[in-house]
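Tutorial, part two.
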Amino acid sequence: LQSTASSTAFKSNFTGYNAVTPNSPVVTVTIPRVDIDNIKSIPELARTAESTFLMMEAGAILDMSDNDVVAIGSANALAVRSFSDDTTRPTIDAFDLDMDAHVLTLYFSESINGTSVDVTQISIQESQGITNADSWYSLSDASHVLPNSTHGFFAAILQVNISKTDQDNIKRKQTLASSNATTFLSVTEDGLLDMNVVPNRVVAIPAAEAIAVSTFQADITRPEMHGFDFNLTSNVLT
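Running the prediction step on this input gives:
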């Protein structure tokens, strides 16, 4: 696919297919997840009918006599005939937490708009449900999303750099995020948006249904003292 009839500035090649119709003049292909994620990671591509064009190399399809299909060049790509919007809301399918590197990794059902992520809508919990003030913590806006190494801020896997303030606040709650068994995540529907022209909100994960961490790394870095104060009047060492 490419975004205009005559330019490959924004394009994505298909890597395979999951299913195809039997021998027929109309061929239907089910696009695999990896290709869908690649397409959705390019904001300029396949967002509307006006940004959806197809080029095809000879040999991509054969007729019943094994004749190659006539190629459709990138300089004269074929416009889409019918275009349907993405109306499915994205979900957070899993997450990892590294308390040593201070990184929260989020795995989504599709490529999402990382610039839309509001980390203050994400909470780390000790368990499903909130029992007291020490059993959960919502991230502050000091934490921020890191660009994906392949797709920048538009990807199905994104990482959040946990700020020093959030690190310390989480660690003060001794039973929170101290092991696999005490690390869960919830999010409101205002947490992020997908890549659609009319964006779909994430499906909320309420506190009572918080999902368990997939991979947890404990903090193994030894603390360092950076300085001290000494007051002989008040007899206080800080």
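Residues 126 and 182 are 4 Å apart (CA to CA). In part three we will examine how such features are distributed along the chain.
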